[in-house]
Design a protein that fits this description.
single chain, about 425 residues, alpha+beta, Cytochrome-c3 Hydrogenase, chain B, 2 domains, four-stranded antiparallel β-sheet, about 45% helix
């Protein structure tokens, strides 16, 4: 019986190191492993002993593309531990900067890093050669997100204006209002990009996922909510560890998140969309319908469309907040140190990002736990790869390599992961 081995020893240009190993024997899969060799960075360990107010700035350095997810999750957890609540004005400003993160992250992934898979092109440079207007539109959309983060947060990468309790200073009303014109342009531009992408030839791969996300009864969940699933889960963020766990597997330095029964689950755009469809704006729902999307999307390859629907929503939501903006006074609430335990969870572009901390009487961290979306999605990525390889064993090696890369990039596991990174080695006996 013939044996076929697909092996990647090192993936270039990723946050850390990874590998893909597939071994087939005849028409049977013997092994499929998606390996992540990201060097341990010990964030949870070196947070211990630090002042709790430092946690948002420190944890934001975990990721350069979605620092707001870490800033907001850590801030919420600290505020809960310290027994304080922010004002509605501060909350609105937080939602505004988070919309900026969604816009810039979603557009960068969808238009620059994922779209080439569907177009049969190597990268966004090649897209620019055949459709320069698409790339120009995407870059302008991404800049809108960056501008939101810069105006509210002080700079677009690792913002410096955020703090536990709110913001060091509120952005001037005139600077915020000046964003409105580009936001209004972006709403229709995002729809046009979504409709263009809806013409892609999507692989047929429907799957009955367990969708896990935040849910808020009044708004499409971004900054807060209860944890829900399409299987009936509905819990407070504080009980996260009662329903989920992380395990360390020998093939990966990154922890794998699972449900308590050991099953994988999915976080991110498809989960948010399925669990929160009714909270989308009418404009975003209309775009989803125009793209041929139903109430639930179970084909992970169509996550590129859901990301653009969410981009349109984030632009609409940001425009709403900008129109109503008044400078919060004060720009933060006082957060004196005390002993306590707090939990926070927000929707990073890639899915829920959970934080929990314990503080001593001086407000110093004695325990920290951070569960990012990529670690939660890893078992499901591996399950998807197994399913895709099983259904496409007859493909030529180059085609199967392309499909495996595309399957991984569906998840946008990080900004550099979503490049053309797989170097494939095939052994045939």
């Amino acid at each position: 019986m013939s044996e076929r081995v697909l092996q990647v020893d090192a993936l270039a240009r990723v946050e850390g190191e990874g590998a893909l190993y597939v071994r087939l024997k005849g028409n049977e899969i013997e092994k499929v492993e998606f390996r992540i060799f990201e060097p341990p960075r010990f964030f949870e360990a070196f947070l211990q002993g630090r002042d709790g107010h430092e946690a948002p700035d420190i944890t934001s350095r975990i990721c350069g593309i979605c620092p707001i997810a870490y800033i907001m999750g850590a801030s919420q957890a600290m505020e809960q531990a310290l027994g304080v609540a922010v004002t509605p004005e501060i909350h609105a400003l937080r939602r505004l900067i988070y919309c900026g993160e969604w816009i810039q992250s979603h557009v960068l992934h969808a238009a620059m890093l994922h779209a080439p898979d569907f177009l049969g092109l190597h990268d966004a440079i090649k897209i620019a050669e055949v459709d320069p207007e698409l790339v120009k539109t995407a870059l302008r959309l991404k800049k809108i997100g960056n501008s939101l983060m810069e105006v509210v947060g002080g700079r677009s990468v690792h913002p410096v204006n955020t703090r536990v309790g709110g913001f060091y200073s509120a952005p001037e009303k005139a600077r915020v209002k000046a964003l409105l014109g580009e936001l209004e342009w972006g709403i229709e531009a995002a729809r046009k990009v979504a409709l263009a992408f809806s013409q892609f030839d999507f692989p047929g791969d429907e799957h009955d996922y367990t969708f896990v996300s935040l849910k808020d009864p009044d708004t499409y969940a971004i900054c807060e909510g209860r944890l829900v699933s399409n299987r009936g889960l509905d819990i407070a963020v504080e009980t996260f560890n009662d329903h989920f766990f992380e395990e360390h597997v020998a093939r990966s330095n990154a922890l794998h998140g699972r449900m308590k029964d050991g099953s994988p689950y999915l976080v991110g755009p498809l989960a948010r969309y399925a669990n929160n469809y009714e909270q989308l704006s009418e404009g975003a729902k209309e775009t989803a319908d125009m793209c041929g999307l139903g109430r639930v999307v179970s084909n992970q390859y169509k996550s590129i469309l859901v990301r653009m629907v969410e981009t349109q929503y984030a632009l609409e939501e940001a425009a709403r907040i900008v129109r109503d903006y008044e400078e919060p006074k004060p720009s933060f609430v006082e957060t004196p140190p005390k002993a306590g335990e707090g939990h926070g969870c927000t929707e990073a572009p890639r899915g829920i990002c959970y934080h929990t901390y314990k503080l001593d009487g001086e407000g110093r961290i004695t325990h920290a736990q951070i569960v990012p979306p990529t670690s939660q999605n890893q078992p499901q990525i591996e399950a998807d790869l197994t399913r895709v390889v099983t259904a496409n064993m007859d493909m030529a090696d180059a085609d199967l390599q392309w499909l495996c890369e595309q399957t991984i990039r569906n998840y946008d596991p990080c900004i550099s992961c979503a490049t053309h990174f797989l170097k494939l080695t095939v052994e045939r006996n």
